[in-house]
Design brief:
InterPro entries: Beta-barrel_OMP (IPR027385), OMP/PagP_B-barrel (IPR011250). Keywords: Signal. This is Contig61, whole genome shotgun sequence. The chain has two helices and 13 strands. Strands 1, 2, 3, 4, 5, 6, 7, 8, 9, 10, 11, 12 and 13 form a 13-stranded antiparallel beta sheet that branches. A hairpin with a 2-residue loop joins strand 5 and strand 6. The longest helix is centred in the N-terminal third of the chain and has 16 residues. The radius of gyration is 20 Å and the shape is elongated. By secondary structure, it is mainly beta. It has a single domain, classed as Porin, CATH 2.40.160.20.
Length: 213
């Protein structure tokens, strides 16, 4: 994590020192999420759901061959369905948990290939998320699942660039810390006691397309 931040700061410093050589392009990015939600509870399980993200993006090409930075402001929607056992019977504790957020990824990237015609890039960096939708989801009558207001995660990905404008990327977004937790309304059964100690992490596989003008 510290290495990623250090590389990003070095790259920003180089861009500031040589503004005439840096290139800036603005564009639009969108894609699909496949939520990979995990729970640390023995009685809870989460099934994956698809979602989407879309928003403006900016790309800086730095005065070093192949090195650059991209940043975006994305409306991001993810869903997961929670299941578990209640008194020995399998039941849906909640139909679905929907997370709606504004995510701001900042990636350091390295591109190699055939100049402006085509290339392959590797990218990694931090992402800052701010939940803008519902944060509380009822689970039975005794507990609810509560999303955090803010989230921090890390992106690791790769992709291809075509004709210096179009990009197709594949990314894995890794949550750092809990995305949400179960809070209680009352403690009625042993199952609910186990739920009250539950936390969840919402990672996601992502496929994206971006066009830079």
């Amino acid at each position: 994590m510290k290495k990623i931040f250090a590389l990003a700061l070095v790259a920003l410093g180089m861009m500031t020192a040589n503004p005439a050589q840096a290139q800036i392009k603005f564009g639009l990015k969108g894609g699909l999420n496949i939520t990979d939600m995990s729970m640390d509870s023995k009685v809870l399980d989460a099934s994956n759901r698809t979602g989407f993200f879309i928003g403006p993006s900016v790309k800086f090409t730095l005065p070093v061959v192949g090195l650059g930075i991209d940043a975006s402001a994305l409306y991001d929607q993810r869903e997961a369905k929670l299941k578990g056992e209640v008194d020995g019977y399998e039941a849906d504790l909640n139909t679905k948990v929907k997370q709606q957020a504004i995510n701001i990824p900042v990636n350091l990237r390295y591109t190699f290939g055939l100049g402006d015609i085509a290339g392959v890039y590797l990218a990694a960096g931090p992402q800052f998320g701010f939940n803008v939708g519902d944060k509380n989801f009822d689970m039975l009558k005794a507990a609810n699942y509560k999303l955090k207001s803010t989230n921090f995660s890390v992106n690791v990905g790769a992709g291809v660039t075509l004709i210096n404008h179009l990009e197709i990327g594949f990314n894995y977004n890794i949550a750092c810390g809990k995305t949400g937790e179960v809070t209680g309304k009352s403690v009625a059964t042993e199952t609910i006691k186990n739920l009250l100690d539950s936390e969840g992490k919402s990672n996601a596989w992502q496929i994206s397309a971006a066009y830079y003008f």
